[in-house]
Amino acid sequence: MNRKDRFQFCINYFQEVMPAPETELHFTNTYQLLVAVILSAQCTDKRVNMHTPALFEKYPDIPSLAAANYDDVFALVKSISFPGNKSRHLLGMAKLVIEKFNGEIPMTVEELVQLPGVGRKTANVITSVVDNQPNMAVDTHVHRVSARIGLTVNAKTPLQTELQLMKYVPAEVVPKFHHWLILHGRYTCIARKPKCEQCGLQPVCVYFQKVMRKQITPAS
């Protein structure tokens, strides 16, 4: 099977089993999503969701966050990974949005990555989720799952993974595709022990065919 056919099989499968995938971060507007994604770096969405309600209640928008005190923000996110850096990122992000973007969160990857705490992955998440732009966010799940299935070949970095995926995924599907791979990696294609016996991608998955097939399929 060539890569184009493998991609099409995956798209068809996910369209059937997960037609409307969404981020598991809780948010009601662009500001809240940006804050949540910054906080989610190397942290679970579940833990982020536990702490953002209090943060959003105290700082409901960019101006209030820009005027916040570091110690107060830190106190609200201290149970999230790297709370010191993330507190500084949140404050810096809010201040730069006001100073450079007139208080409006920009909606291009090139502008978003100028904000503290915002890398290419975060910028791709924001633009694809909020504006449905065809930008592929690559986190650890997407990077791992893409390689296992065989959607990417020898991709060493998130950017290499992104570029390989973008070559084969139709633009209109891109905003869904990274959610599909994230959720698939979170609940089925788990890092240490993938649940291959439950996976509908067995027919096209390189990892299953090479590693798991003999373990799951009884000898005849």
Automatic annotation (TrEMBL):
One Pfam family this sequence matches: HHH
Protein keywords: 4Fe-4S, DNA damage, DNA repair, DNA-binding, Endonuclease, Glycosidase, Hydrolase, Iron, Iron-sulfur, Lyase, Metal-binding, Nuclease
Top-level class of the enzyme under EC nomenclature: lyase
Matching SUPFAM superfamilies: DNA-glycosylase (SSF48150)
A single MF term (Gene Ontology): DNA N-glycosylase activity
Reactions mediated catalytically: 2'-deoxyribonucleotide-(2'-deoxyribose 5'-phosphate)-2'-deoxyribonucleotide-DNA = a 3'-end 2'-deoxyribonucleotide-(2,3-dehydro-2,3-deoxyribose 5'-phosphate)-DNA + a 5'-end 5'-phospho-2'-deoxyribonucleoside-DNA + H(+)
EC number: 4.2.99.18
Required cofactor(s): [4Fe-4S] cluster
UniProt remark on cofactor binding: Binds 1 [4Fe-4S] cluster.
Gene3D superfamilies: Helix-hairpin-Helix base-excision DNA repair enzymes (C-terminal), Hypothetical protein, domain 2
Function: DNA repair enzyme that has both DNA N-glycosylase activity and AP-lyase activity. The DNA N-glycosylase activity releases various damaged pyrimidines from DNA by cleaving the N-glycosidic bond, leaving an AP (apurinic/apyrimidinic) site. The AP-lyase activity cleaves the phosphodiester bond 3' to the AP site by a beta-elimination, leaving a 3'-terminal unsaturated sugar and a product with a terminal 5'-phosphate.
HAMAP family linked: Nth
Protein name (database record): Endonuclease III
Organism: Flavisolibacter tropicus
Higher taxonomy: Bacteria, Pseudomonadati, Bacteroidota, Chitinophagia, Chitinophagales
Gene symbol of the encoding locus: nth
